[in-house]
Amino acid sequence: MKTSCARPPSILIILATILFSISCANSKQVNLHMFFRCLTNNSSPFHPVSQAIHTPNNASFLSILNSYIKNRRFLTSATPKPLAIIAAKHISHIQATVICAQRYELEIRIRSGGHDDEGLSYVSNNPFLVLDMFNFRGLYIDIASETAWVQAGATLGELYYKIAEKSKVHAFPAGVCPSLGTGGHFSGGGYGTLMRKYGLSVDNIIDAQIVNVNGSILDRRSMGEDVFWAIRGGGGASFGVILSWTIKLVRVPSIVTVFNVKRTLEQNATDIVYRWQQVADKLPKDLFIRAMPQAVNGSQEGKKTVQVSFIGHFLGKSESLIPLMNVRFPELGLQQGDCSEMTWIESTLFWADFPIGTPTNALLWPSKADFFFKSKSDYVKEPIPKTGLESIWKLLIEIGEKGWMQWNPYGGRMSEISESETPFPHRAGNIFKIQHFVLWVEEGTETTNHYLKFSRTLYKAMTPYVSKSPREAFLNYRDLDIGIASSSNNRTILLNNARVYGSKYFKGNLDRLTRAKASIDPYNFFKNEQSIPPSPSNPASSL
Ligand SMILES: Cc1cc2nc3c(=O)[nH]c(=O)nc-3n(C[C@H](O)[C@H](O)[C@H](O)COP(=O)(O)OP(=O)(O)OC[C@H]3O[C@@H](n4cnc5c(N)ncnc54)[C@H](O)[C@@H]3O)c2cc1C
Ligand SMILES: *[C@@H]1O[C@H](CO)[C@@H](O)[C@H](O)[C@H]1NC(C)=O
Ligand SMILES: *[C@@H]1O[C@H](CO)[C@@H](O)[C@H](O)[C@H]1NC(C)=O
Ligand SMILES: *[C@@H]1O[C@H](CO)[C@@H](O)[C@H](O)[C@H]1NC(C)=O
Ligand SMILES: *[C@@H]1O[C@H](CO)[C@@H](O)[C@H](O)[C@H]1NC(C)=O
Ligand SMILES: *[C@@H]1O[C@H](CO)[C@@H](O)[C@H](O)[C@H]1NC(C)=O
Ligand SMILES: *[C@@H]1O[C@H](CO)[C@@H](O)[C@H](O)[C@H]1NC(C)=O
User: What's the domain of life for this entry (predicted)?
Assistant: First the structure.
């Protein structure tokens, strides 16, 4: 049993547990040794796997581990470390890792960009290995067919940069942070400023390659439509190792317009946000306006206020945007001087908070984990009343500038796609999605607990204003507070547990996900704290 060592069933048998843990730890060492031999046996002789293995004895271990940790909450000495990192350099290293980890009962975590908000791609409470994908960052853009092929370890910044090298009028709908890995980001949904026009990343994926539990390489045809459906929003980590995606590029005008207009409470932010809720999801698809409330120092010494940033992205020139805003959302008072016109690729830098004029190769720069953070998410289906907004502002002022929310409008293309088209179910009927974010730089468990508590308090206070039964959540804003998988092997128990978080992330799509899981990984090798368990009722895969 893989997990019995880590989770003693009762204090009464603690001695037995300690003895068992010791023998278990030894057997893990033996397993690890056998695992490495198995890796060598199963890897291509022309691509020695030894060059891909980093154990704590290799000087490279910590730098490799840490370079793709994006949240300092999981960059402490107390964070559980892997037994080894396999930074695959050849497909056979990935296949061998899957085959051998199963044979020697070692858990694996798959990591692409390393942004998982709860560190699930590189932390586990069980003895585990990290299968690192950062060497798999190939990219091929084909403008003639308006498609691209991108490997799982490539970042969004690399993808955007390569598209722009080939065309100024093509783009891909995905996130705003350039260092996100396509392996995790696409398989969890993937949204950004083009969402109202073109939907999510998963709505624009046409093929994928994965390594399954047997070490076979499958494409859309050989994995079948259920699994291909599942990895487009159900998370990759439950189904196999994603090697690459084939994506459909989308068209953008050669000039787009961006703005960031800020309004404090004294400048009628409450009224404007209230109005924003009425229009943001109904505006033309070409226009995406995010609202971002945050506490700031007021003009009066020592007095805080809330400032709401309205950050806009328009697929067109400002000469079309201004009259549109004057008709549809005059309360914001958008002026020509607030607008900047640029190419789409330059707009990706703007959204990543680079100053206007930054060279586009900044999209290729590695990012550092220089802060601690906690994310949560919510969906809003009815406008929040002004009294509600005021109570939210009060809480934001209490937490200070370390906590904020991003309100991302839905509607447009998002409402045209059915809830079951992909595992991502949050489509028509949502005005906007909230990302709750708390970010801090001070170290220490006490500080961390303080901010985690704050995040939970704010989340609780939002209950009256957000979706209910289930309280929906976005998989890419991973949040272990909303439920954790059982460590049991009993499928009924696993499924009951998975319903808690799975219904929030996937609503009615959970059942199809568990069937897809049963067809590709019936013995649940690919698992983590919030993975999809195999359907208990699938006769083809009963234990
Ligand atoms: C600063 C920041 C900004 C963000 N901005 C956005 C945004 O604009 N839009 C948005 O939608 N999301 C956003 N996110 C969330 C982000 O999309 C998710 O965290 C996503 O999972 C990151 O993918 P990754 O490959 O970088 O992470 P990883 O931590 O490597 O992976 C995340 C999950 O996917 C699994 N996984 C990774 N690679 C593979 C693979 N090759 N095969 C199978 N499973 C795999 C991991 O095991 C893990 O469970 C943001 C997150 C951060 C921290
Ligand atoms: C590796 O292969 C050798 C020779 O084929 C075999 O003797 C050995 O048992 C294998 N080891 C593992 C761990 O598979
Ligand atoms: C790690 O150390 C082992 C043992 O010395 C060696 O075989 C392996 O090649 C090293 N890994 C890397 C990536 O250098
Ligand atoms: C706020 O709204 C009031 C009443 O609608 C208006 O008179 C005032 O000019 C507005 N203030 C700002 C800064 O827009
Ligand atoms: C806000 O004011 C406090 C003191 O009242 C100060 O410590 C802090 O740095 C200020 N924050 C910003 C962003 O200016
Ligand atoms: C699994 O758990 C369910 C619910 O607790 C129980 O009814 C069932 O007997 C268990 N199955 C096995 C095989 O232990
Ligand atoms: C894995 O291999 C076994 C044995 O060959 C086979 O029965 C099973 O269907 C395969 N599983 C998958 C998911 O391909």
Answer: Eukaryota
